[in-house]
Design brief:
CATH architecture of the largest domain: 3-Layer(aba) Sandwich
CATH topology of the largest domain: Aldehyde Dehydrogenase, Chain A, domain 1
Number of strands: 24
Number of domains: 2
Largest sheet: 8 strands, mixed
Strand content: 15-25%
CATH class of the largest domain: Alpha Beta
Bound molecules: NADP nicotinamide-adenine-dinucleotide phosphate
Length: about 550
């Protein structure tokens, strides 16, 4: 038996998983949380969830899903606001802990905290507004339907328990209470979070606030669980979750390797489930000649700052910059280099991430076609002999590499994400070569197009090329900074995500956790309230082809 949760949420981790409202202690596999800036070990020691605990969390989520099946949407909205309030209430210790675990500065984490709790509240509003469920009623005898037919009613219904995997680089906004968790809870699905081993304390403290809100708002305790993962058990726990028959979907944010592995597991089950994977991205930036002629230095400074933001560890940092050679491109690369020189080395999220970054940069540098435009003295050192990772703070300083357009299509490595403060400038000889290079990459979260007055006729094919390959298209702007809004698309063709038909940010993210169900000839008492004639929730519906809030 686990220990019941304290009613007061302290902002202090205990080092154990939270399963269905109880602290789930075991003495099995233990691991530490490390202060990235100094390498010091933080207290407490963490215990990874055992296979039995993974199964218990999944089974309890399944039971909770069935027990709460008839809860009205207002109750799901009512869960999200106390979650947000509970997390805000522990904001100060939470940010301090997250900063110690990740080396991300408190100012950025405070902004991330506001975004996280703002997103929870936004989903509550969307659930209450109700139209997101796409309710449709087709009555017999309506135009185009014979009166002999039966009424058809359709809407999105929840899938069931969702497993959530957050990324290391956004310990709040893409982690325990990030959009995947918030959108799944909003969609009426229980959630089991697999804690990220690079911020276990942050994850557990956020989980306490969610677990307390679950109990406070009358949900079955199994509606939310948080599993610590580390000490060599991390990937097993992920696999056990995605394989578990009670888990009906998974949300993943992280590397392409991780996303691919979990997608394969989800698909190879006897009953395959959707795994929504948001992965790494190259985020191409195209600067057309007119833009290079008009304000090369201004654009270069913006791109440099975007590249180096968060030590280059954002999924939307620009990784490939496409230019046509000439006076403007020289000014651009010089201004970019000058701006990067002003940016000092920063601590990366973990030695493992620094080691991956180092390897990717060194692999590029080994190719004779690559030139270093800036940062010859900043080439990351290889790990010490016999060691996989560097000891102490894992630092990286911005760098800029280049390759001639004629060589760009020769090596697949040029299309790899460099998760760190380095980008590759592709220097083309003419517009035709530029177009050929731009069409070499396949999928990206974002694509930026800088266009000057002289580019009006030149821009359309480049805009179309980006549209075919990217989730979000930015005109005369940099890709970092993802707004939480209805029109946002955070996704894109593979490898940016495995589901280009969805977005991991904004209200539409909820639709990932539901599926359409059609009710034929169903009586009112068996229908969800959204589909009853009298429209008790007052939501917008498509009735006989026309959008309306009126009862029918
Ligand atoms: P990561 O190493 O892939 O980790 C993400 C999560 O997936 C962790 O919980 C990790 O577990 C788990 N995982 C990874 N490989 C796995 C496997 N084979 N089997 C089971 N679980 C697995 O990524 P990260 O280093 O935290 O984050 C950096 C990456 O995330 C970058 O590529 C970045 O571009 C991407 N990212 C994407 C977005 C987006 O919205 N598209 C946002 C932020 C970050 P363990 O670590 O415990 O093994």
């Amino acid at each position: 038996m686990g220990e019941a949760l304290p009613t007061e949420i302290t902002g202090r981790p205990f080092g154990v998983s939270l399963i269905a409202g109880e602290r789930a202690d075991t003495q099995d596999v233990q691991f530490d949380s490390i202060t990235q800036a100094s390498g010091a070990t933080l207290q407490p020691t963490y215990t990874a969830a055992s296979p039995a605990q993974v199964s218990e969390a999944a089974r309890k989520a399944w039971s909770a899903f069935h027990a709460a099946g008839l809860m009205p949407p207002s109750q799901h909205a009512a869960l999200l606001r106390p979650c947000a309030d509970g997390i805000d209430a522990i904001g100060e210790p939470l940010v301090a802990l997250a900063s110690a675990e990740t080396a991300i500065e408190p100012a950025r984490l405070n902004a991330e905290l506001a975004r996280t709790t703002g997103t929870l509240r936004m989903f509550a509003d969307v659930v209450e507004e109700g139209s997101w469920v796409d309710a449709i009623i087709d009555r017999p005898g309506a135009e185009g339907r014979p009166s002999s037919r039966q009424a058809l009613r359709r809407m999105l219904r929840p899938l069931g328990p969702v497993a959530v995997f957050g990324a290391s680089n956004f310990p709040l906004a893409y982690s325990t209470a990030g959009t995947d968790t918030a959108s799944a809870l909003a969609a009426g699905c229980p959630v089991i979070v697999k804690g990220h081993p690079l911020h276990p304390g942050t994850g557990e403290v956020v989980a306490q606030a969610i677990a307390a809100s679950v109990l406070e708002t009358g949900f079955p305790a199994g509606w939310f669980s948080f599993l610590h993962a580390g000490g060599g058990r991390e990937q097993e726990i992920g696999e056990e979750l995605v394989k578990h028959p009670c888990v009906r979907a998974a949300g993943f944010t992280g590397s392409r390797t991780g996303g691919d592995a979990l997608t394969r597991i989800g698909l190879s089950r006897p009953d395959p489930i959707p795994v929504y994977a948001e992965m790494g991205s190259v985020n191409p930036v195209i600067v057309l000649p007119g833009a290079l002629a008009s304000e090369p230095e201004k654009i270069a400074r913006r791109v440099a700052q975007s590249l180096a933001a968060a030590v280059g560890q954002q999924c939307t940092c620009p990784g490939l910059i496409f230019l046509i050679d000439g006076e403007g491109s020289d000014m651009f690369t010089k201004a970019m280099s000058a701006e990067l020189e002003l940016i000092e080395a920063g601590v990366m999220l973990a030695p493992r991430i620094q080691a991956n970054y180092t390897r990717t940069v060194r692999e590029l540098l080994a190719l004779e076609e690559i030139k270093v435009l800036f940062g010859t003295d900043r080439v990351p050192a290889p790990p010490p002999p016999g060691k996989k990772e560097v000891a102490g703070p894992a630092m990286a300083a911005p760098m800029l590499l280049s390759v001639a357009g004629e060589h760009f299509r020769q090596h697949a490595e040029f299309l790899n994400e460099m998760f760190g403060p380095c980008a590759l400038v592709v220097q083309c000889q003419n517009e035709q070569e530029l177009f050929s290079c731009v069409t070499a990459f396949v999928g990206s979260l974002t694509g930026s197009l800088f266009v000057g007055d002289a580019d009006v006729d030149r821009a359309p094919p480049f805009a179309r090329a980006l549209e075919q390959r990217c989730g979000r298209l930015i005109f005369n702007g940099v890709p970092t900074g993802v707004e939480v809004a209805w029109a946002m698309v955070h996704g894109g063709p593979y490898p940016a995500s495995n589901r280009p038909d969805t977005s991991a940010v904004g209200p539409t993210a909820m639709k990932r956790w539901r599926r359409p169900v059609c009710y034929q000839n169903y009586p009112a008492n068996l229908l969800p309230p959204e589909l009853r004639d009298e429209n008790p929730l007052g939501i917008e519906r498509r009735v006989d082809g026309t959008l309306t809030r009126e009862p029918v």
